[in-house]
Amino acid sequence: MHPLIMLVAFFLLVEAVASDEPQQALPGCNNTCGDILVPYPFGMGHSTTQDNTPCYMDSKFELKCIKSKLTYGKMIPVLDINPQSQMVMKFFVSRVCTNSSSSNNTEEANEPLLNVSSFTISSTENKFITISCDGYGILNSNFKNATYSIGCLTRCHNYDHKMVIGNNIGKCTGLGCCQVDIPPLMKNITIQTFKFPPETTTQEDCSYSFIAKQGSYNFSVDHINNLTNQTFPMVVNWAVTNESCQIAKTTDSYACRENSECVDNDPDYEGYRCKCLEGFEGNPYLPGGCTDIDECAKNLHGCKNSANCINTAGNYTCFCPLGQTGDGTKEGGCKLPDRKAYLYVIGAILFLVNVWIIYSLYQKRKHTKLKGKFFRKNGGSILEQKLLQRKDSSSKIANIFKERELRKATNNYDESLIIGRGSFGTVFKGELEDNRIVAIKMSKTIDESQIEQFINEVDVVSQINHRNVVKLLGCCLETEVPLLVYEFVSNGTLSDFIHKDKLNNPTWKIRLKIATEVAGALSYLHSAASIPIIHRDVKSANILLDGTNTAKVSDFGASKLVPLDQSEIATMVKGTIGYLDPEYMLTNQLTEKSDVYSFGVVVVELLTGERPFSFGRPEERRNLATYFLSCFKKDNVFEIIEDGMLNEENKQEIKEVTDLAAKCLRLRGEERPSMKEVAMELETMILNVEGNR
After folding, report:
1. Which domain of life is it from (predicted)?
2. Which domains does the chain possess?
3. Which of 134, 205, 292, 537 is catalytic?
4. In this predicted model, what pLDDT tens digit does every residue of 206-239 receive, in sequence order?
5. 537 is a catalytic site residue
6. Range list of β-strands (E), 264-410
């Protein structure tokens, strides 16, 4: 059993070693013929595993293996293939001999031909040789539709064998044997051999011409009349195509795969080849390309030993173990630092740790002072006093959030958590430590001269407790611009509901309900809040919907508190085009009737499904409110109601709502109804609808 076990172990070892060798052929293809390796793009036959795919890149790389003999084309024997650049083949001898037995002294000649445009004859590895005493040979090349020729001539006129032998001991120096260099880029070749007419009728002589790999032929005088070789080894250069790298890279057939490079700078080649990048091995033409050489595992490194080597892609690095110094190479090596060096290192580490601790404390203190500065600048002291005054009252106290709480809630203000952007700031979705989901608004700017008014508004708005107003939970004043924290409303904006969520539309019952809820919220702000509030930017984008499509008025960034002894305020005009009250734009006098106008536009938006202003519409229809009033006066307002909404059941309801919208859109504010009147009319309409159904 011992010999059998050793034999099995031997074959397993051979297989393991072979598996470490880089793959050279396509899957399912033989990569050897006899003892010759056949690397892709060359190949024989078709794959047994890849849907009968050819084992070669294209026809010029097709080889045949017959009885373990590798051949190319018309039975040209192949001796070796270099996967990077060259192939050695046996090429035929051209010969012509004078036949003295014939009364006509006839000559018999042959002309070997290699007509492959992708193969060039290596000018550095071959010689062109002619053997004769009265003959010459010509090597022809057809290149870019032109023929180029080189020749080799030798004459000795009734030569003396001693003379030829004395001058040619195994060498081809010109007497009886002539050899010349081959120019670069010779391809599509033919070899011709000629003899000069014999000087005597009894003379019988031959002439031979051939290409031979350097070192493969040694001259002998006997060869002049009797060269027995039919072929000689010849080296050819091969390329993928005749294109340059620059052109090849733009084509779908570009052959160089991963971790390889294109080469076309060799004057002995026409076209391009591929080769693995330094530090990689394998076949650059196969799918997957070249693989990294593990210099550490294969002991191809310059490190002190493999334990000091780390393999990297295409290279390696040497290192020293922790606690040692040096570069880890064979020349440099590694060594333990002396005792003093250890003390220096430990001292340096302790120094750096102390510096880091001091710097961290300094930064923390600086950050704390900066937050305190922002807190005071943003009116934190004023808000704290207000909260203390109301601590024992039944009024809801606004929360003052810490900056770190909101930073953590928004994952450091991650952009993926942005749920809204507007002219006044950016809104983030956040989760507080008590698992409450909130909306955190980061304003763009704040007027420092209006800080006290801002704090008053935060204090008042945080006390608003109405089911149709988004609840202000509190604020953070430790940032350069204050942050406001609102309850999170999950179902998007009314604008999205009208213009994007077409699956929900048109639904008149829901739209009437939404209009009624918004009117109720605005009525509350105008007349029921502790201090009247004018929203100043009522629009569908500032009305949120929860999971049951309950409306909630939001975004009080432009709002104004109205002193109890005033009915109007002089302000700079702020709002959104299409919703802005024309009277407010002309006079700069803000009243609650400005919100009434904007609400009227929202109602028309609900009725028509159109945006309040669009340059994409005809000029007379660009401003929705103006166009609606025009249709209302012409008594054809039903023509602009959104398709699919109007029916016989709701026709009267829609008529009443259009009448109400037209009242809200009157140019003179004093002629418009109050939000309380609007809300009551809509609520009555809702009750009538419920009663009729």
Report:
1. Eukaryota
2. 21-84 (no CATH), 89-238 (no CATH), 244-289 (no CATH), 378-487 (3.30.200.20), 494-692 (1.10.510.10)
3. 537
4. 899 999 999 999 998 888 888 999 999 999 999 9
5. yes
6. 273-276, 280-281, 291-292, 309-312, 315-318, 325-326, 334-335, 399-400
